Amino acid sequence: MTTRRRILHVIHERIGAVGGIQRFDLRVLRTLSGIAQELGYEFEVLALNGVATGIALPEAIRLVTADGSRARLLWLLLQRHRRAQLDLVFVAHLRLQKALWPARLLFPGSRYLLFVHGIEAWSAGRTRRNRLAARAIVRFCVDDVVSVSRFTARRFRDAFAATRHRLHLLPNALDLSPEDAQVREPRPVMHQPVVLTVARMDPHDLPKGISAALRAIALLVPQFPQLRYRIVGDGALRSGYEALAAELGLQTRVEFLGRVAEQALRSIYDEADVFLLPSSKEGFGIVFLEAWRQALPVVCGNVDASTEVVEDGVDGFTVDPHDPEAIARALRRLLDDAVLRQTFGQRGREKVARDYSGAVFAERLQRIVTSELAALPFDSLPGGASIDAERTTETDPPRYSAAQRWHRSP
Predict the structure, then answer these.
(1) Coil, helix or strand at residue 9
(2) In angstroms, rounded to a whole number, what is the distance separating the alpha carbons of residues 267 and 286?
(3) What does R_g of the chain's alpha carbons equal in angstroms?
(4) Cβ count within 10 A of residue 307
(5) Model pLDDT for residues 72-122, shown as the tens digit of each residue
């Protein structure tokens, strides 16, 4: 009987929920489904927290949820290892890898790939014991790493001493419609200028820089008395930001819009003049792509992966995220110059089409899958898979995973 070959994607967040990681997970699983089908593999998704309301998945995807239980998720993973040959297991978040390591050691024939996104991948733990445990899990239970940016990959490598892992680059993506290709005419400065921020406001999102942004807006009010600042997002920090806005005398200029639906968000982007996110914690920053889709110029921080996406003086400005005066100077240049706003925004939109489209994302993920399947031992390769099978042991010897080396050691 032919052994069933399968690619598995294990997801931590609720699929399709609000957030950059959640949207990334959704794009990965939809793209992986097509790649697996093309290669003759079954594709299955194990989701810790299920699927958000209204999210449709391709019919070819087998979806099993663990109802929020990590113990059940581990049991489901072990069950699938016993029933089918799992050649590739994509783990969507570092927190999941810490829960699933027993399966990795018990079934060393599979290759485990870990996605890393941002701040969660920059610290191995607060205590020495936690750091040693986390580094051991990465060393023995992760074969290679898929990162959304070079910045995150470097930070992960340094934090986890992950010097033996291949670090695949898979930046986020955004789909452009034919309407998005139309040139956007900038609105004249004499209208009410609008600066926009889109960010969550949970406690761990404090480095998003909204406090510095509010202080920068206050510095601009004398020159732009009709200036409005709109903030999309919600969370526990919102009340503090509202209090700061009141303290700065911005009650009538700042709008806290909370969470909004996708279509409404497109309209909000379209009504803005400049996008602002002076963050110091971005592992990528998909909101920059969203701003560019609407041909908005971007002002962002210069200490994280934002500088990998936004090119200073070309499609936006990168500034010290902790310096309200620097933020204000960048905003002032854009609000003063309609041609510059249009130029930056159009260049950003062209960058999305060139470097961050869904098609480019699919090509990158296809290469990652092909590369990882090629790293399987010869006797593990499925006959129908379209991968490079021309390797010889002399030129490209089979690579053993960390767990396989662990099992083979005396």
Answers:
(1) strand
(2) 17
(3) 23
(4) 18
(5) 999 999 999 998 889 999 999 988 887 888 998 999 889 999 999 988 888
